[in-house]
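Because showing beats explaining, we let one protein speak, sequence and backbone structure tokens together, and leave readers to judge.
___
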Amino acid sequence: MTALAGGEGRAEAPGKPSRGIPASVLFLCGMNAVRSPMAEQIARRMLPRDIFVASAGVRPGERDPFVDAVLAEKGLSLGAREPRLLEDLEDAYFDLIVTLAPEAHHAALELTRSLAVDVEYWPTADPTSASGTREQILAAYRDVRDRLEARIRQRFADAETVPGRK
């Protein structure tokens, strides 16, 4: 497993959010197939380009075509990106880890308990449990996308007004 490193010299205790604008953010969820890749793409669009943004999962996952559909509605794309595991990340230095699922939160806390890394838990519904028509399922995915966008906008409000970002 890749070791995560945090910013040296920070006064905050591990896991306690500093609420500042981090230089690097990791969105972490179960399989890196739905919530965390959505959050990554939304954050990449909204945040300044000098903030490093990535996402990963704590267990293997498969790409979800509904994610592609709801991101495309906002002009976003995963491209050829496939779900990846936390241990697969090349750069494991993050100032902030945002966890979107309970299992991801527990994993992040375990990995960072002795490091100066801020960990924030944003409980986020799993739209893969939605059933019904295609439109009803898409509505569940849209709800998650829109809630993530609102949460990112709220959390990173000070970094949002960046020329060239939509």
Remarks:
- Helices lie at 35-46, 65-72, 102-112, 134-155.
- Residues 15 and 118 are 5 Å apart (CA to CA).
- The domain at 24-156 is CATH 3.40.50.2300 (Rossmann fold).
- Strands lie at 24-29, 52-57, 96-99, 118-121.
